[in-house]
What we know:
Layout: E1 2-6, H1 10-20, E2 25-30, H2 33-40, E3 46-49, H3 55-60, E4 68-71, H4 76-88, E5 94-97, H5 106-115, E6 119-121, H6 123-135, E7 142-146, E8 151-157, H7 169-173, E9 181-188, E10 191-193, E11 206-212, H8 216-221, E12 232-236, H9 240-249, E13 254-259, H10 262-271, E14 276-279, H11 285-290, E15 298-301, H12 306-318, E16 323-327, H13 334-339, E17 344-346, H14 348-357, E18 365-370, E19 377-382, E20 403-410, E21 413-416, E22 428-433, H15 438-441
Parallel strand pairs: 1-2, 1-4, 2-3, 4-5, 5-6, 12-13, 12-15, 13-14, 15-16, 16-17
Antiparallel strand pairs: 7-8, 8-11, 9-10, 9-11, 18-19, 19-22, 20-21, 20-22
Helix pairs in contact: 1-14, 6-9, 6-14
Amino acid sequence: MKIVIAGVGEVGSHLAKMLGSEYHEITVVDNDPKRLESIAGMVDVIVVEGDCTTFATLKKAAVRKADLYIAVLPEETSNVVSAMLAKQLGARKTIARIDNNEYLEPNNKEMFINMGIDYLFYPEKAAAQEVINLLGHTSTTEYVDFSGGKLSLVVFKIDAASPLIDKSLIEITGDRDSLPYRTVAISRDGETIIPRGNDRFQEGDNIYVIANQSAEKEVVAFSGKTDIDIKNMMILGGSKIGVQVASELQDEVNIKLVDYTPEKAYKLAEQLERTLIINEDGRNTDAMIEEGLSNMDAFLAVTGRAETNILAAMLAKRLGVKKVIAEVENLNYINLAENMGIDTIINKKLIMASNIFRFTMSTDVQAIKCLTGCDAEVLEFIVKPNSPATKGKIKDLDFPHDAIIGGIVRGDKTFIAVGNMEINAYDRVVVFSLPSAISRIGKFFN
């Protein structure tokens, strides 16, 4: 696939690196020569210097041949104009990053489609929704629904109280045909393992489990934790993520939002009528304690600085806050933050990559999630008639060893995948995959 990425800031660079390893032809466009030089030194891409909102630059980037045009420039207006022009010049599919919730309203969304923009993506809104979802499943570090919640990926860290410690997969599962869940991966010391029967669980492991609705509570019990009701919550940072989370939850949860900028604090106080706004520096430990951090059920750190978010989250953990979430945009800091005991990390680049990645797959991918805690993806495929996956039992499919089929949704029924099971046309199949297998698994369902 020929892909043109307009803008090589943090998001554009991450997309180029991710998609560049998937055998696509990538062209990146930016008016900053230093950024272009930097990305060209890391990934095999074609670079074009110029303004992405001009016909001359877009023609130079050969967008008329593009299968996918992704506009992720810093300015929303530039993204909209750039994607619209790219479509007019012949790009088959266009995506624009936005930062205005109004554009996503159904009637307005239709207008953008008529202008030639196939997909609008608002990373901060998606991140806020992920946070809200996680606050409803406090014992998990990541939680992803598939097929309207019929199947879920539940991710949790094994604490000292977990009954899984030192037990093998076989000892836990026993007769797997009768179980409503399946362990699809273990993340340990920065390595992601597709587990086999004799693999043993260790304290500190991150466990990835595909489960149906009836099994979620049973799976969560393995973590050694229990879900809690969030009644009191503190948000550090009046960012777009923080504001959206507060606006959606302030009717149900007592929220304190802390921001160090006086002007922003005043505006937030007018905007969020049922949220207590505090003008304070979140790096001031004494001030945070004085504002009642130790009494919170949940803490969310979403300032513009990863370092501040990590330090504040560590303080919250030390003070006994039960659910701690931190935004960490520097990918190099994610493992560090998790090793420091922070419950959950959110990253807008990975969230955006999850949404865009499915447009690059030739197979019918209903959903894809680039996971934060490990170098892997979980995908939901719709099986096409006469595809290789329908030609025999799962154990006979010669499926890649670095991927695993977790579950199947067939109409209103759900099945946890086992070797003797057969896959039918139009089934929805949830697959956990390491990056090395992504380019190979699609052919099984196509």
